């Protein structure tokens, strides 16, 4: 992956939106303020039932860097996100979730980091998270810093250490996204579909952490992960999806075996909880 080019790379922010009226204006305004020169924003409204589409259209009307897709029916998070990926056309992409606020230098800093390291596929910063009930939390995802081995990177993502999902809002190479083929549903539905996505991303290249808080996450009542079912069955469904990504990455047999072993160890607590539940039901 070469970082040499005659003009600034194109960057496109992908905004999957659904019933986001209470907050999305702040998210879109933060995208307006990005300092990166060759920047575009593509929004997909997933047949919202509130004023989300109208708010998004107002940004399209005032800023020619913005475009809006309006889905005729509700697709769900995964298909709406994949519609954005399929329509995008840029060197770099990022997911701008409708409850995130990006500081003005975020895109510029991430692109500069990726240009400086052609082996890297994603760059992200630290995040400060605001909850509706509780104190703010700073999320620093450090586990992948400096790791050049694709197997070691993927092992860490499989193990899901603290704040493992932070790179999902980073700037990533469009080429890598094309090789992964988008987000996928699994036996647990849409639950934690960013986990297998990030496992495959880790297999494709290095991850860069910018050691500054350049993103604010503001959890809302309808934030996506708040509606997930964190059951062992859903977790195991996501784990099987990770196994599929490992298979599709076409690793050597030895590399694959090491990752499958890590994934099996990660699944043990969920399997035990299911077994205990089954015993109680039958007892």
Shape: globular
Radius of gyration of CA atoms, rounded to a whole number? 19 Å
* SS-based class: alpha/beta
Number of helices: 9
* Amount of helix: 40-55%
Cα-to-Cα separation, first versus last residue: 57 Å
Main CATH class: Alpha Beta
Beta-strand content: 15-25%
Instruction: Give the biggest beta sheet.
Output: 9 strands, mixed
Average of the residue pLDDT scores = 93
**How many individual domains?**
1
Say how many strands there are: 9
CATH superfamily: Spore Coat Polysaccharide Biosynthesis Protein SpsA, Chain A
Order of helices and strands: EHEHEHEEHEEHEHHEHH
CATH topology: Spore Coat Polysaccharide Biosynthesis Protein SpsA, Chain A
Low-confidence blocks of residues: none
Q: Which architecture per CATH? A: Alpha-Beta Complex
Short description:
The chain has 283 residues and is α/β, with parallel strands linked by helices. The protein is built from nine helices and nine strands. Strand 6 (120-130) and strand 7 (137-139) form a beta hairpin.
Please render the helix and strand layout as text:
Elements lengths: L10 E7 L6 H9 L6 E7 L6 H11 L3 E5 L6 H11 L4 E4 L4 E3 L3 H11 L3 E11 L6 E3 L10 H10 L11 E3 H7 L13 H11 L1 E13 L13 H17 L4 H30 L1
Parallel strand pairs: 1-2, 1-4, 2-3, 6-9
Antiparallel strand pairs: 4-8, 5-9, 6-7, 6-8
């Amino acid at each position: 992956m070469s970082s040499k080019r005659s003009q600034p790379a194109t960057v496109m922010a992908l905004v999957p939106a659904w019933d986001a009226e209470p907050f999305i204006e702040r998210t879109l305004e933060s995208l307006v303020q990005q300092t990166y020169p060759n920047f575009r924003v593509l929004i997909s409204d997933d047949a919202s039932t509130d004023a989300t589409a109208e708010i998004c259209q107002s940004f399209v009307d005032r800023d020619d860097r913005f475009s809006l897709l309006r889905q005729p029916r509700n697709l769900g998070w995964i298909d709406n996100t994949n519609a954005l990926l399929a329509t995008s056309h840029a060197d770099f992409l990022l997911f701008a979730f409708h409850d995130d606020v990006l500081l003005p230098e975020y895109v510029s800093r991430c692109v500069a980091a990726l240009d400086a390291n052609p082996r890297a596929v994603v760059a992200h910063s630290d995040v400060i998270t605001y909850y509706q009930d509780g104190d703010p939390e700073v999320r620093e995802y450090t586990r992948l810093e400096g790791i050049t081995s694709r197997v070691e990177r993927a092992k860490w993502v499989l193990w899901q250490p603290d704040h493992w999902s932070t790179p999902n809002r980073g700037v990533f190479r469009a080429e890598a996204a094309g090789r992964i083929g988008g987000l996928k549903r699994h036996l647990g539905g849409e639950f934690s579909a960013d986990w297998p996505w990030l496992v495959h991303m880790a297999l494709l290249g290095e991850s860069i952490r910018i050691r500054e808080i350049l993103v604010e996450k503001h959890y809302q009542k309808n934030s996506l992960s708040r509606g997930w079912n964190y059951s062992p069955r859903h977790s195991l469904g996501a784990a099987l999806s990770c196994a599929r990504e490992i298979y599709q990455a076409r690793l050597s047999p030895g590399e694959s075996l090491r990752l499958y072993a890590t994934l099996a160890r990660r699944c043990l607590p969920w399997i035990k909880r299911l077994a205990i539940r089954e015993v109680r039901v039958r007892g």
